[in-house]
């Protein structure tokens, strides 16, 4: 069981119109064998809540329930729904820990302890990441002027019993699958419809290409970082192996032999280099993961959500055009005209409402994206420099020791 | 020596040639470092003569031949039924040390090999990622961000170069150092085996001498004067042999001790210089890395 308290202060979301504050964060998390329990902490001056500050415990499925409820709500068709956080996945890390346990007999105690520490650090990193992703989801919802007022969201934040949200059963999963198939087929049809509005036409082309390229970059960054982690693991094993080489029993006579002392001294300096380098390399890989890979993964999901918005708008447009055609037909035949008129008005209203909010949402998406990339790329560069300078100091120090010892 | 077909434009053949060149160079450097070998006329001829006679009977000196010789000595040692009575524990202890070290170096070599492979993999993956990032930069419609992403793609490209150079240094400096010493320690073990063999020869001569003496005693008792003369001659011969072999054994013992100390001195020097060379390449690499990221940082900050 692992528990982590996030002490970072979160940005406060203030609704300037109603002067109400809503601040959400995940203050604690507990990892049990096959599930993670997040403690969702809320601070709010909104009148809807019974108290100004409270906490509840939620699991991953309940986040998914909340996300799906937004997606299925027709009222929110015109917004980019914040993407759902990915499922906590500790399988790879657990597998590695298990393999280590099995291979315990084949390595020295020092090697085993060192590798165990590394794997535990990795587990902790994955844990922190999943907590961060769940938190980002909630913060995005809390920051959205409309979604923050959603009733389900308030229930999610406040209701201190289990929401009894079970995972989808087989039938529901199958329904979801078919819904997605229909959506992608529809998507192809709808994508072919040229938009009269230049803004949306440009956005459609842009998002399609951008999404695909982000997907590609995300997959490739993952692969690159995995190689980096593998290399860091090797450096760890080299450090252990060098240490074993350096601490071999030598004959008493030779312990006083200058030549051997000199040899082992060089070896020890070398061990030092690898020991510290490994820590640095592991941090480099972790930081690249956080600042680059996670950024790309997040914008992969966000760009998909934006595409989904455009899809919903196109669907509404198609419905509107069909309603127009139906109205013309009804007027020509002079049958069910009132019905057709009402239907056409509804479709028109829906389409215009979606278009209006979609435009703002897409502009906001751009602003958010540019800001997020700027922040992460700057932090990435600063961290790379910090680690490289650390590496440099280490190497200069050790080379100095060796040179001075001729 | 293994025979390998080498093609003209094969990239792996370029690597192979470089590896061989470096290995042969190290081998020659070790040979000329050795005070006794430097005096050897064959070595001198090898270094000086324009044309060397075709190597027809180098079977004994070839790697395979040399290995056979060592293996014969080891077999002889293994077949010894009488354990050597060491008055001086130095040899036993030193041999144990050498064997342990060889084992450790083998283990270390496996991990270093793994590092070389992972770095090569990292190289490939970084190059692919750089291209993908460049494409993403092209799609991005915010101009400053687009430019920053293209710059980042270039940085990653440069990193790929760095990784490639680091992988080469991992291999040529570190991994090859280890494999050289694994083989050299094998050769050191070979020396110890040769000493054991000398001891065995001495012991066998002693037991033969003993048998001859017993035979002489029998002849004395049987009173056969003509055969007695022959027996006496044989005894003298074997007495001389025993003395010779004992002297050989002592001489070899002293030579092994001297050689081991010289070897350890060389090894310490070698490791130190290679370690320093390796650390230096890592240092250069980090300095260049710093330059790349320092150039990129203002671009990232310029995103608006």
Offer a few descriptive terms:
heterodimer, A: 406 residues, alpha+beta, 2 domains, five-stranded antiparallel β-sheet, elongated, disordered N terminus, B: 304 residues, mainly alpha, Substrate Binding Domain Of Dnak, Chain:A, Domain 2
Structure description:
The complex is a heterodimer of chains A (406) and B (304). Chain A is α+β, with helices and mostly antiparallel strands and 406 residues long. Chain A has 2 domains: 1-149, 2-Layer Sandwich (PX Domain), CATH 3.30.1520; 197-405, Arfaptin homology (AH) domain/BAR domain (Substrate Binding Domain Of Dnak, Chain:A, Domain 2, Up-down Bundle). Chain A is built from 9 helices and 5 strands, in the order E-E-E-E-E-H-H-H-H-H-H-H-H-H. Chain A has helices at 60-72, 91-102, 109-143, 151-158, 170-192, 198-246, 252-255, 258-333, 337-403; strands at residues 2-5, 13-15, 20-31, 36-44, 53-58. In chain A, strands 1, 2, 3, 4 and 5 form a 5-stranded antiparallel sheet that branches. The longest helix of chain A has 76 residues, at 258-333. Chain B is mostly helical and 304 residues long. Chain B has one domain (21-38, 89-302): Substrate Binding Domain Of Dnak, Chain:A, Domain 2 (Up-down Bundle). Chain B has helices at 11-33, 35-39, 41-48, 63-79, 90-139, 143-222, 225-301. The radius of gyration of chain B is 31 Å and the shape is rod-shaped. Chain B: This is Sorting nexin 1. Chain B: It is found in: Cell projection, Lamellipodium; Early endosome membrane. Chain B: Keywords: Acetylation, Cell projection, Endosome, Membrane, Phosphoprotein, Protein transport, Transport. Chain B: It comes from Amphilophus citrinellus (Midas cichlid). Chain B: Pfam families: PX, Vps5.
